[in-house]
Design goal:
Blueprint: E1 22-26, H1 29-32, H2 45-50, H3 68-82, E2 86-90, H4 106-121, E3 125-129, H5 137-140, H6 149-165, E4 171-176, H7 178-186, H8 198-222, E5 227-233, E6 237-239, H9 244-265, H10 272-278, H11 289-293, E7 299-303, E8 308-312, E9 321-324, H12 340-354, E10 359-363, H13 381-399, E11 404-410, E12 429-432, E13 437-440, H14 442-452
Parallel strand pairs: 1-2, 1-11, 2-3, 3-4, 4-5, 5-7, 6-8, 7-10, 10-11
Antiparallel strand pairs: 8-9, 12-13
Helix pairs in contact: 3-4, 4-6, 6-8, 7-8, 12-13, 13-14
Bound molecules: beta-D-fucopyranose (FCB).
Length: 454
C-alpha cells in the first residue's frame, strides 16, 4: 500500500443523489456462507480448488468463512443499522442441485427463502446473483462451462430459484464477472477450476454469455416485473506510452476485456478485430447464439476497482499485451491503483459506447490490512477515503447525465477472498475469524453517517 497523494474532493452527500437511489453492500455465497456440508450442499469447484495444495495462499477455504449461513440475522441487522436499502447476495448452486436432472433441494431453497424474508423485514431490497463462481463440482466433472450442456443445467437452476423467490425478489443478476469465470478460472488458472487453456476459456466465456441470454426470458416468465441484468468487471484502460506498439496492445486488450462482453450483449456480436487476434481460439458459436446473448437488459451492473495500464509484450500470452503494475500512484494493499476518476471515466465511456440504460455499481471497494486497535475499533481511514472519493466521482458523473441508479459497496463483511484466502479484507465490517465477532469499521460508520445524513 502506498500513501495518498491527492486531495479530497468536495465530500459527497446522500441528498446529492436521487431519492430512489439504491444504497447497498454486496457479498457472495462461497465467500461468506460457510456451512459447506450442511443441508445437502454438495461440493463446488471452489471447495475442490481450495483443497488442492498451493492454490489458496493461506491454505484456507470457504468451509466456515463468516458462518453467514447461521449468522445472517446479525449481518442483516448490521446492514439495516447502517442505513442500507438494498443488499446484493448470491445463491450457491451446490445447495440447490446435487446431480444433473435431479430435483431441487428443498432445504437449499428454504435457506434462500428465509434469507430473502430476512432482507425484506429489514428494508433491504434483495438483489440476487445467480452465479458468483461456485459451480457444482459434478458439473465440472462433465466439462464445466466448457460443455454446452452446462447452459441447460444452469437454466434448470435459474428456473428453480426464480420460481421459489420470484414472488419477493424482483432484481436478478445472471452472472458475476464472466471475464473472471472464463479467464482467471480457465486461462490464468488462478481461480477454480484452475485450467490454463485459452481456447477453453473462450468457450467457457461463450457458454456463460449464452446462459445469460437464455436465462433472461426465463426469469421474466417466472418473476412479475422482473428487472434482469448482468454484472461485468471493467477497467478503464490507458496505454503505457504513446508508442504505436503500446497503443495497439491496449486496443487488443480492450477488445477482449471490454468489447468481447459489451459488444455481444448490445447486439454487435464478437468484435471482428479481436476474432482476428485470437484466430483458432475463437469459440464454437451455434446459429441463434448471438441473438440470444443480445436480449435487451433492464440494467447493466458495473464492478469497478481500478484502471489498467497496458504495454506491448511480444510473445507474451494470447494477446501479446501486459498489464503493468501501478507505479508512483496511491494503491491499496494488493497493489490496486486508487483512481476514483477511473470510475467516472469508465461509466462515461460505457454510456457513450452503448447507451445501456440504467446502470448500477454492483461492486466497488478497497482492501487494506486492517487491525483491531487497543480501543476495540478498526480505524480504516484509507477505506473511508476510498469510499468517499468514489462516491464523489459517482455524484459528478451522474450529474453529467450518466444514468447510474445505485451503488453496492464491496463488501458488507470481510470474507474469503478467493485465491488470497483470508489474507485480504474488503469489508465495511471486520470479522474476527477465531470468534466470528463482527465490528463495524470506521469506513462502515462513515457509510452509516452518509446514508443517515448525520
Ligand atoms: C470481484 C469479485 C468479488 C470480490 C472482489 C474483491 O472481482 O466479484 O467476489 O472478490 O472482486
Amino acid at each position: 500500500m502506498t500513501t495518498p497523494n491527492s486531495t479530497e474532493p468536495h465530500p459527497p452527500a446522500r441528498r446529492e443523489f436521487a431519492d430512489d437511489f439504491l444504497w447497498g453492500c454486496a457479498t457472495s455465497s462461497y465467500q461468506i456462507e460457510g456451512a459447506s456440508q450442511e443441508d445437502g450442499r454438495v461440493e463446488s469447484i471452489w471447495d475442490r480448488f481450495a483443497a488442492t495444495p498451493g492454490k489458496v495462499r493461506d491454505g484456507s477455504s470457504g468451509a466456515v468463512a463468516c458462518d453467514h449461513y447461521h449468522r445472517w440475522p446479525e449481518d442483516f441487522d448490521i446492514g439495516r443499522d447502517m442505513g442500507l436499502n438494498a443488499y446484493r447476495f448470491s445463491i450457491a448452486w451446490p445447495r440447490i442441485f446435487s446431480e444433473v436432472g435431479g430435483k431441487p433441494n428443498e432445504k437449499g431453497l428454504d435457506f434462500y427463502s428465509r434469507l430473502v424474508d430476512g432482507m425484506l423485514e429489514r428494508g433491504l431490497q434483495p438483489w440476487a446473483t445467480l452465479y458468483h463462481w461456485d459451480l457444482p463440482q459434478f458439473l465440472q466433472d462433465r466439462g464445466g462451462w466448457a460443455d454446452r450442456a452446462t447452459v441447460d443445467a444452469y437454466l434448470a437452476f435459474v428456473d428453480a430459484m426464480t420460481r421459489r423467490l420470484g414472488d419477493r425478489v424482483q432484481h436478478w443478476i445472471t452472472h458475476n464477472e464472466p471475464w473472471c469465470t472464463a479467464m482467471i478460472g480457465n486461462y490464468e488458472g488462478l481461480h477454480a477450476p484452475g485450467l490454463t487453456d485459452f481456447k477453453t476459456a473462450l468457450q467457457v466465456c461463450h457458454h456463460v454469455l449464452l446462459s445469460h441470454g437464455k436465462a433472461v426470458p426465463l426469469i421474466r416468465a417466472n418473476v412479475p416485473d422482473a428487472q434482469v441484468g448482468i454484472a461485468l468487471s471493467l477497467h478503464p484502460l490507458r496505454a503505457a506510452s504513446d508508442s504505436a506498439e503500446d497503443r495497439a496492445a491496449m486496443l487488443r486488450h480492450d477488445g477482449l476485456r471490454y468489447r468481447w462482453f459489451l459488444d455481444p450483449l448490445f447486439g454487435r456480436g464478437y468484435p471482428a478485430a479481436t476474432l482476428d487476434v485470437i484466430k483458432d481460439a475463437a469459440p464454437v458459436v451455434h446459429p441463434g447464439d448471438m441473438e440470444a446473448i443480445a436480449v435487451p437488459l433492464d440494467f447493466l451492473g458495473v464492478n469497478y476497482y481500478f484502471p489498467e495500464t497496458i504495454q506491448d509484450a511480444p510473445g507474451e500470452g494470447a494477446l501479446a499485451a501486459r498489464v503493468l503494475p501501478p507505479q508512483d500512484v496511491e494503491t491499496t494493499a494488493p497493489g490496486w491503483e486508487v483512481a476514483p476518476q477511473g470510475l467516472a471515466d469508465l461509466l462515461a465511456r460505457i454510456e457513450n459506447d452503448y447507451h445501456p440504460g440504467p446502470m448500477y455499481i454492483t461492486e466497488n471497494g478497497a482492501c487494506y490490512d486492517d487491525e483491531v486497535d487497543a480501543d476495540g475499533a478498526v480505524h480504516d481511514e484509507p477505506r473511508r477515503r476510498y469510499l468517499a472519493r468514489h462516491l464523489a466521482a459517482l455524484r459528478d458523473v451522474v450529474r453529467e447525465g450518466v444514468p447510474v441508479k445505485g451503488y453496492f459497496a464491496w463488501s458488507l463483511v470481510d470474507n474469503f477472498e478467493w485465491a488470497e484466502g483470508y489474507l485480504r479484507r474488503f469489508g465495511l465490517v471486520h470479522i474476527d475469524y477465531a470468534t466470528q465477532q463482527r465490528r463495524l469499521k470506521d469506513s462502515g460508520k462513515w457509510y452509516r453517517s452518509f446514508l443517515r445524513q448525520e
